[in-house]
Amino acid sequence: MWWAQDVSYFAGKDQDDFARWALRQTEMNVCDTHVSVGTQTTPTESLAVNFDRRRTLQACCDKVLAAMGPYHREGVYQRALQIALEAGGHEDKVQCEVPISFTFQGREVGTGRIDLLWGNIVVEIKVSDNGSVLSKDKGQLRKYLRVRPGTTGMLVVFHATGCTVVSVAGVER
């Protein structure tokens, strides 16, 4: 494809930069209706929805942090974020502490809990002193995405000077 050169520029860069680029290409009708993000092929329409959802989630996180302040435990931010998303009038259901199970050869081998499930978006919440996003946190979110196919992941990191929302692409099984 002729635009593959442009896409390679985004390798290892912020997924939101790529989403903005893909949306611009689609608006100009110079891009296929599907673009590749990591190992997944994602319709550009869902990129637009996920970009809007990320902005909405960031706005809610900013409201929560402004009202609550820094240095709370994850559970406090989790519940406050649930309230903020529900108050925002979004039609998607918001659930906290959603149980999941891990299986091997058809048998359950462990359980876990998703911090927040907002429609088809798995939200993992972390608290950090310096706001750094760790690869182990992204890995934890990818683990949840493997168990719940068809979901998108967003990692929220609350820290002393603000909050960061990062889109995390799932990995195929």
Written overview of the protein:
This protein is of the alpha+beta class and 173 residues long. The protein has a domain at 52-168: Lambda Exonuclease, Chain A, CATH 3.90.320. Helices cover 40% and strands 31% of the residues. The chain has a 5-stranded mixed sheet, with helices on both faces. Strand 6 (152-159) and strand 7 (162-168) form a beta hairpin.
Shape: globular
**Helical coverage, percent range:** 40-55%
CATH topology of the domain at 52-168: Lambda Exonuclease, Chain A
Largest sheet: 5 strands, mixed
The CATH architecture of the domain at 52-168 can be named as: Alpha-Beta Complex
Q: What ranges have pLDDT less than 50 throughout 5 or more consecutive residues? A: 1-8, 25-45
Structural class, from secondary structure content?
A: alpha+beta
- State Rg: 17 Å
Approximately how much beta-strand content do the residues carry? Answer: 25-35%
Helix/strand order = HHEEHHEEEHEE
- Quantity of strands, as a count: 7
- Termini separation (Å)? 27 Å
- Quote the average pLDDT: 77
Task: Give the CATH level 1 class of the domain at 52-168.
Answer: Alpha Beta
- Number of helices in the DSSP assignment: 5
Adjacency order of strands in the biggest sheet: 3-4-5-6-7
How do the helices and strands line up, and which of them pair or pack?
Elements: H1 4-8, H2 15-27, E1 34-37, E2 40-43, H3 44-68, H4 74-87, E3 94-104, E4 107-118, E5 121-127, H5 135-147, E6 152-159, E7 162-168
Parallel strand pairs: 5-6
Antiparallel strand pairs: 1-2, 3-4, 4-5, 6-7
